[in-house]
Amino acid sequence: MNKNELVKLIDTTKCTACRGCQVACKQWNEMPGLKTRNWGSYQNPPELGWNTWTLVRFQEYVDSKGILKWLFRKEGCMHCTDAACVKVCPSNALYRTEFGTIGLHASLCIGCKECITACPFDVPKYNPHTDTILKCDLCYDRLKGGELPACVKSCPTGALSIGKKEVMIENAYTRAKELGGDANVYGDTFVGGTHVLYVLGEKPEVYENLPARPAVPLTIVAWKDWFKPLSLIAAGGVLIGSFFHYITHGPKDTGGNSDQTCKGGGE
Amino acid sequence: MTNHWIDLQHSDCILIMGSNAAEHHPIAFKWMLRGKEKNGTKLIHVDPRFTRTSARCDYHVPLRSGTDIAFLGGMINYILNSDKYFKDYVVNYTNAPFIVVKDFDFNDGLFTGYDKAEKKYSKETWVFEKDAAGIPKKDPSLTDPNCVFQLMKKHYSRYTLEKVSSITGVSREDLMKVYTDYASTGAGDRAGTICYALGWTHHSTGTQNIRTMAMIQLLLGNIGICGGGVNALRGEPNVQGSTDHCILYGNLPGYLKMPVASLDTLEKYLKKYTPVTNDPQSPNYYRNYPKFYISFLKSLFDDKATPENEFGYSWMPKLDDGTPYSLMHLFDAMYKGTVKGLFSVGTDPAVSSPNANKVRKALEKLDWLVSANIFDNETCSFWKGPGVDPGKVKTECFLLPASATMEKEGSQTNSGRWVQWKYKAARAPGDAIPVGEMFIKIIDAVKALYAGEGGINPEPILNFKSDYINRNGAFSALKAARQINGFFLKDTIIDGKTFRKGQQVPTFGMLQDDGSTCSGNWLMAGSFTTDGENRMTARGKDDPTGLGLYPNWAWAWPVNRRILYNRASCDINGRPYNPKRKLLEWTGHKWVGDVPDGGWAPMADRENGKYPFIMKADGVGSLFGPGMAEGPFSEHYEPFESPLSKNPLSSQLNNPALHVFETDMDKTASASDTFPYVCTTYSCTEHWCSGALTRWQAWLLEMQPEAYVEIGEKLAHEKGIKNGERVKVSSARGFVKCVAMVTKRFRPFLVEGKTVHQVGMPFNYGWLFPEDGGDSCNILTPSVGDANTHCPEYKAFMVNVSKIQEAG
Amino acid sequence: MIPKKGMIKVSDTFERIVHWCLAISCIVLMLSGLGMMFHSFNFLAIPVGGLKNLKLVHNFTGLIFIPSLFFAILVWWKEAAIFDVPDDIEWIKCAGGYLWHVENPPETGKYNPGQKAFFIAVAVFGIIMIISGLIMWFPLEFSASTVRVMFFLHALGFFVIFPFFFIHLYLGTIGVPGSFPAIMTGYVTRAWCEKQCPKWLREMEENGTLEVFGEEKPAAEHH
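The joint structure predicted for all components is written out below.
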């Protein structure tokens, strides 16, 4: 295992939805605030966008005991180990960093949007002004400089933390155990383990826009893991087969291809 | 705050009531969460709304806006009837055993002494029986029917569970859940604290809301202890600092009193405000009032203030007796045309003041308006506001560009009274200068005019000390801060120690009433050491008590005491009630721990010992509080605009001591079918106050782009309103259009057998920017305020909500 | 490769234009697709100045591919998409003698079943490539699950067409000598024709519609 692997832990049970992270992210990454309307929710912008790499989702939920809960979940790139976006990226714009996170060289992005479709968490977003996608890179530049990601730095309540993978996974399970009930850890058991973990207060199914069992889509696997090599093998096979066909079976006798036989040769 | 932010984590139970701590004190709220996480602190949120605070508390109990006293009165009743109070504390450290005069009474919502015509109480009967020596009589057994304890028990016996539930709309189960959880802190080794904010002050009974809780805290022995206290969460606007330095009209710096016209000599003034006691064990620290006040006068007038001229007392402006000068009164006077000019500094009253339509009309009647702000706002630009014809407005308006907080040096005081020095981080843009510099430059110009041309009443102007400009011609906050701390004005020997002229006064205990010291704010004496070291810049992280007092981090008033009334954390022999959280301990000859509230021995020492509540004349906490305008005990009165036509507890519907405005723009509608829903107003995390600063910030605006009203699902269903639709919210005073946020977080209350819906709106929006962001919800709020402070009743009034039929 | 007297015309100008439009666009699509699909083939983007341009080349070549395929199907579907029962079945049974020695492989029409299979594959998967490609071009207009299926189909199409291309290339050139002129000049030798499409040759001769280089066009007489 990569010793440098980092994991960001989002403890939703400590989040007060102050959205400091949402603003800090935009500030550090120099993303603009865009015109929005109130659409009947505190959650704004309504979804992640090219200028919104992290978004606090607000969800009113009445549990089975009739108790009203207001669930807050900071949404953003999960930095999968088995990252569908990296798998599909034609240009290496999306890549795995030494921290195990998924970085983005926006200058390499060709705007094909394949990652947008491939991502099981619906994270990468397309910026039509630059014809590239944008997404959280867990402040790769800050991590390189030994700083905390902007969101973690801004969090007043300790809902966000970052550290060595094993330590954070342990912290997450300790906290979930401490909370009891439906509290659970989300992220370490699928897509090869994500580098963003949640401690969720409720079962994953309860949360809006959070896949309960995320996976790299089968079609992406078929494409990238099966057809990609198979098409090369098949084409290579044909080339080699043709060669051996030529030297063993020989070209088909079509009555010769010399000019002499062209007239009435087959009669 | 009696305590401080870090101390919140030591509480066993935190009642958050009248506050949305998570949204408005997000950084501070972490200490509550830390308590919950590390120490198992129970967090209870009692609030009309389910907020982000509710989401993080152990549980949330919704109550109808404006019924806090009923809720808390029920808790007092529970505590007294179930013997949950901390007896040792109550007997020794409160006025529970004091005997009240026989004539005192309470009948059908009114205490004795009420003058119906004046809407005022005379307080002759709100006093204690005194013995021959002039010391209040006490019954330590608490059984005398006229002792405070028994009167209190009788008074609150009317606050039965049934009654309280019917008034507040809180179920009896929920009431009992809160009462039992909170009352469990009435033990020596347990601490409970209250965190409140504008949710309590913004009521016509605001002061009594807080007082009722203070009484509970005294009953449970929660004042003066680690993890306890009555904690007003004060916010980013440096509210604590500005209050300390007299933002309120009746105050001078350090909560000294503003003189009134009838106190025409210094002697009369000092006699009026210097409390006396005959009890030798009461420190009655305010006996030093003359020292604080005369040092204050010396700071204003320097060597021009002499014993011969009463230290310039006659130059001080005087309020008219019995006349309030609150924000609402000022705008009322402007509306009536008696106030002709306004300095609006760092405020946006056209958005933030109640009955904003009246405020905006009042601004039109001014001759001149000077705004000092970092942005233009709805007040400064009122002349081009909605429905205003600029051609018809005669007011001359000036906008002085001010530097923002990070563009200037100075001190900021947090809720825990920690005064922290901060430096200038960025250069202010353009011509912007600190507000302090504006004032100095203006007064210097006025002085020059007076010197050249003469004028009316020249002495206070010409004698006013204003040399706070540094060599570069800029305002020096440091110079002003030194003056606020105070100096020795001549060589002085105190207790054998010599202080030279020009040295800083190290503590207010050294201030003198003979003109030999000056201090702009006695509370701040000690913020510099004698040698001039600025203690507000201290950043030491040592924590000798282990309780997070951090005595060398910044400096806290008074005298770096981190928890007020801390001697009450020990029994009468000075032994800590809670050895696990040992704030202070008497070692036999001195106190060890926090800076004690006076170094005297504990009160069991009848010779040298003193009572712990040193700022009270009687030396104990006031369960019986005659200082209040509407009664020595609190009583539930309905909000000025209420869904009820009758107070379920008495025939006195509203606070009897209310001041009511009566212009044509002060319409009200209580218990009316036209305006059937209770409305409350508040701020949201994303914006700051009127939004005059934050609405220009794209990142913040993106998150909360426009005005909204939060409506429960049931009411929305009844009115056919869908989430995100535009609606019109109207009150007797006006209407605003905004977006409906239909939510599960607002639920109707069952009050006196009928369903009462409540809605809520943030006050962060104004017409100026963004253009489609909606206008201020204060167009709806009534200009009525608390009887003691005249703090407006923003939190409970009546509205209607209707769907807008958008044309085409 | 100038046709000589006596050679038989097997394709007209339009057919040859369609073939080459299809062929060239297909090759460009395959190469540009390859350049985007495999990081090791990213170098294929160098001549056009980067992957972003390669994407544009791919997308816009697709727009040429669409009409090419359309006309190809229009032109050839009768001759190349309908199997001739039972002769073609017999042919399939012995693989037309391409893979092992067969004394007398069954006679075929203008296109043998192998060619027909290739044509059908190109037609079917070509359409799939067009539809999936267009959707992949504008993925934000469709649901992610739809686009994900398109990824699958596009890859499947590539998997089929790519190897077939090489078979076609081999058999159209050195694998079956004499074939290449059929799509270059349109004329092949009679001997080639008798081997490759005897039935067609017979039919044409019976109908008198056979065009032989250097001879009068018979068609006019028949009309």
